[in-house]
Amino acid sequence: MTSQADIATSLELAGATRADGSFERPVPDIEWQVPAHVWLDGEVVRWRAEPEDLGSEERSNPWVSSGPSLLQDFLRLGSADGSRIALFAKRWGVLRLCPHGLPATHPPHLDASALVGRAFRSPRGEFYLDPVDSCVSFIGPAGSESLEAWWTFSTYVAAILRVAGALHTESDGDAPDWVRLLGSDWPITEQVPPHLVRHVLGSIVDQLLRVADVRVQFGWLQGPPEIAFTTHSLVGALATQVALATARSDGMAICTACGHMYLPERRPALGRRNYCQTCRATGAPERDAQRARRARNRRLTLEPRANQD
User: Which of 146, 140, 144, 136 is closest to 49 using CA atoms?
Assistant: First the structure.
């Protein structure tokens, strides 16, 4: 059973929340549509979308935005009954699984999603490499998902967060969580180097993002340009929150010194220089600050001369 205390512990260990349970950092604003009709049918959640009238301002299938409660609510589903899962799906949307037991957005080649096949109890969840065509076009206006798939994905996400929290504290995580993620506890029993253990969890999170078709989006409307995650599904929104919680970050930034993208611990303030961990270690902030002081001193020196002229 997944208790409220278990959920709170998973989120706090991963660095997603404070000790009082509130979210430590902002949640990225992601939007997707929810099918107009969602209902429970025995051990299955069924759904049906309505055709959209593009000439109308009202949507037949409502849009929903991610928020702090999304991940918390989803983690509660690991031991929830069917009615609670159906209520969640009515509010937040459905998984939209394809015949392979994966989100329909998965890449054409299943080798890109072999690790996370276990997240949905996919029949191909054991490192299969055979190519499969994209399934997005096969998902019609109606579908169904077993309660087992929902339970499985919820407990899988909780295991990721607990292992991430352990790795942040220089521990390898608990064997039951690794069994849940990989089907074995080999990172615990085989004396695997810490960097390889981190790499394995990183690969799981990375492949979850790829299966959910989470992408990077560049936007420039008002003010400075913005780079953010974008997705159009419930699984994508969950994958994004899991990735940011695992990284203990609230988004992406571009390093002032090297120009590379990185995940900051806190969102940088607009108009201020920000640096990745590597550039901080090499003293880039101090060098830039010294250059800025020299430039400011030169301006102060030249201004009196200009006033005299």
Answer: 140
Tell me 138's DSSP state: G
> Residue 31 contacts by C-beta under 8 Å, 6 or more apart in sequence?
63, 64, 65, 66, 232
Q: How far apart are CA 80 and CA 256, in angstroms?
A: 46
- What is the pTM for the complete model shown? 0.75
Q: What's the CA gap between 240 and 281, in Å, rounded?
A: 28
A 10 A CB-CB count for 122 gives 24
CA–CA distances in Å: residue 267 to residues 24, 26, 68, 243, 264:
12, 9, 16, 15, 6
Q: State the CB neighbour count (10 A cutoff) for residue 34.
A: 20
Retrieve residue 306's tokens. Answer: 């200009």
Q: Which of 28, 141, 146, 150 is nearest to 88 (CA)?
A: 150
Q: Give residue 2's identity as a one-letter amino acid code.
A: T
Please list, in sequence order, all residues whose beta carbon lies within 8 angstroms of the beta carbon of residue 14, skipping any fewer than 6 positions away: 161, 162, 164, 165, 168, 245, 246, 248
Q: What is the pLDDT along the chain (309 residues), one digit of tens a residue?
A: 455 556 555 556 555 555 555 444 445 678 899 999 999 999 999 999 999 888 888 888 999 988 778 988 999 999 899 999 999 999 999 999 887 788 888 887 655 446 787 888 754 444 343 455 567 655 678 999 999 999 999 999 999 999 998 898 888 888 899 989 988 777 776 678 888 899 999 999 999 999 899 988 887 877 667 777 888 899 999 999 899 888 876 655 667 777 665 667 666 665 678 787 788 888 888 888 888 888 777 777 766 655 555
Q: Can you point out the beta strands (E) in the chain?
A: 31-33, 37-41, 44-48, 63-65, 142-146, 215-219, 226-230, 253-254, 261-262
CA 109 vs. chain centroid, Å, equals 21
